[in-house]
Design a protein that fits this description.
Blueprint lengths: L12 H25 L9 H24 L3 H22 L2 H12 L1 H4 L3 H16 L6 H31 L1 E4 L10 H13 L5 E4 L2 H10 L3 H12 L14 H17 L5 H6 L7 H33 L10 H13 L3 H4 L5 H16 L2 E4 L12 E6 L5 E10 L9 E6 L2 E3 L2 E3 L2 E8 L12 H18 L21 H7 L5 H7 L11 H9 L5 H20 L6 H15 L15 H4 L9 H19 L4 H12 L7 H9 L6 H6 L7
Parallel strand pairs: 5-9
Antiparallel strand pairs: 1-2, 3-4, 4-5, 6-9, 7-8
Helix pairs in contact: 1-2, 1-3, 3-7, 4-6, 7-11, 9-10, 13-21, 16-19, 17-18, 18-24, 21-22, 25-26
Amino acid sequence: MLNNLPTFSEINPSDIEINIEQLIKKNKQGIQTLLKETDHYHWNNLMHPLSLMENELQKVWSPISHLNRVVNTPELREAYNACLPMLSDYHTERGQNRDLFEAIQRLEKNQEGLGLDQAQRKVIQNALKDFHLSGVSLSPDQQHRFRDISKKLAKLTADYADNVLDATNAWTKQLDHKEALSGLSSSALASARQAAQQRDVEGYVLTLVFPSYDAVITYADDRCLRETVYRAYVTRAAKNSDYPEYDNGAVMVEILELRQEKAKLLGFDNFADLSLDKKMAESTGEVILFLEQLAEKSLPFAQQEIETLATFAATHCGIDQLQTWDIPYVSEKLKQQQFDIGDEDLKPYFPAERVIQGLFQLVEKLYGIRIQQKTEGIDVWHSDVQFYEIFNAQGEHQAQFYFDLYAREHKRGGAWMDDFCGRFKENDEVQRPTAYMTCNATPASDDQPALFTHNEVMTLFHEFGHGLHHLLTQVDYLEVSGINGVEWDAVELPSQFMENWCWQRETLDLLTEHYQTGETLPDDLFVKMQEARHFQSAMGMLRQLEFSLFDVKLHQASTIHSPEQVQAALDRVRDQVAVIKVPDFNRFQNAFSHIFAGGYAAGYYSYKWAEVLSSDAFSRFEEEGLFNPEVSRDFLVEILTQGGSRPAMASFVAFRGRKPSIDALLKHSGLGQVV
C-alpha cells in the first residue's frame, strides 16, 4: 500500500542489513528487466517503474535513518553504518548505468511526441544531470574510483556525526548546590536537577545538549563556569577536548580530500563548483561576492554593537576584557537594560501546546487547510512524539507529519525536517506525503510545562515551513514533489518565510498564553519585543556569513591536507568578517555537522541566499495585507505546491511578479544607515 506508515517498534537492528540488501538486489533486477523488455520507452514503462522502486527503498530506509538520529543506540548505529556502503554503491551503480542513461536520453528526445507535462520533463532533465554527476561518462577505472570515493564519503560523514553526538553525550558537570548556578531560571535549574536524577547523582548536572549549554552561557553569573561549559562545547569532537577519542580532525580532512578528488574526476576545478552545479547560484564567485557584499553592509553595524557591548561589560559587569563566553551573558544584561526585556520574560507566555495550536491556526487561516492530531494506531519512537494529519479545503486527507520537539540524550542536536515519503501517484491512488519535524527545545519539568523561548518558537516555525513545502505539494511525480528536486539554495525559502510570522501581533495573539495566568502577550511586552528585534542583528548576520564564507572557501581550496589547514582557512575568514575574536582553543569546525555530515557542503550560504527570497516574499504580504487571501493563495499555488517541478526562480517570479531584491532582507535585519 502506498499510504502505510512506519512501524518503528518493529524495526530490529539485526534485520536491517539483510532487508536493505534484499531490497537493493530486487531493485537492481527490476532495472535489468526494464531495460530488456523494450527499446520503445515512454513514461509508464520506464520513469514510473523506476520511481516505484525508489519509493519502496525510501520507505524502508527512511525510518531506519530517522531512528539513528533521534534514538541512537550502539546496535542501531552499527546496522545503519553497515548499510551505508551498500546504498552508496547501489545509487552510484545506477547513476553509472549507461543503458539506463541512454534509455532516458531517448525518452527526452521524444518528449514532445509523448506529450509529457512540465513536471515530467523536469524529472527527466534532473535525471540526466544526475547521471553526469554520478560519472556515467567516466572511463571504467574512473567509475570504479568514483564508487570507492562515494562509499568512503558515506562512511566518513556518518563517523563525523557519530563523533559529534558521542562527544556531546560524554561531557557532564555535576554541581552539589544551586548557588553554583546563580542566574539560571527556575526552569533551567529544574532541567539540571532532572538531568542529575536521570543519572542517579546528587544535586545538578549540566550537559552539552543545547538547552543546558544555552542556559549556562546566557545566564550563569559564575564566569568560570561559563568558560568551562563554553570550552567543552566549542571543543566537541576535537583533539584538545576532554574526550579526544572523538576527534574529527582526520575525518574532516579526509572528507575534504575525497570531495575534491570527486570533483576533479567529474571535470570541476573544486568541490564548491560541483556543489553549485545543481543550485540557483551560477558560480562560486557569485556566491562569494554576495556574501562579502552582505558582510560589507553589516560590518559597521556589528562594530558599533560590539563596542557598545564591551563598554557595558566594563561599566556594569566588571569585565574589562570581554571573552566569547561572556558575550551571550553580557548581551542579555544589556538587552534587559536597553529594552527592559529578556528571553525569560517572554518564555512563560509560550507554553509548547499553545504555540503548536497557534501555529496550526495560522497556517489553517493562510492556506485553507485543517490539522488534526491522531493518536490511535500510530507507532512512535518516543513518548514525546505527536502525530498529525492535514486535510485540504475539501476535507480530503492530504498529508501527515510527526513532531519530536524536545532535547534528550542519544538524540542529535539541532532542528530539521526530513521525509518518510513524498507525494506520488500510482494508478488512482495518491501517496500522502509524510514528514518528521524535529527540534531540541527544553522539555517539561516536574513543576512546569514545556515553555519555548522566542528563538525556539522561530525554530519550530522554520522547520514547519520546510514541512509545508513538502506536505502541501500538488505534484504527482516523486522526484519533483515537495522538497524533492528543489535547488538547495532555494529550499530554505518557505522555512525562512515562516519565521517572519513570529513577530506579528496577530500571530503572537494565537501563540501566547501565560502558563499560569492564561494571559496573552501584553502590549508593553510586545512593544519591547519589537524594539529589541534587531538587537545585535549585525553580529548575528556576520556570524552566519562567517560560516558561509568558511564553507565555500574551504571547498574551493585544493590544498587542505591537515586539520591545521582547515583552522587556517577559518582564521582567514574570521580576519575578514568577524568582530569577535574567538580563543585559540575553539574548534567550531570539528562539530560543523551541516557541512561535514549534512547536505550543506559548499551550500551553507543557502540560508542567506534564501533569506533574500523569503524576506522579499514576505514583503508582499506586508504591502498587500498579512491575511490577504489572494496573496496567501498565490504563495500556496506558486511556491508551496510546485515542489521542484520548475526552477525556483520561476516560482519566485510567478509569486512576486519580478526577481528578488536584497532590500527587504536588509530592512528585516534592521540594517539601514549607520548612525
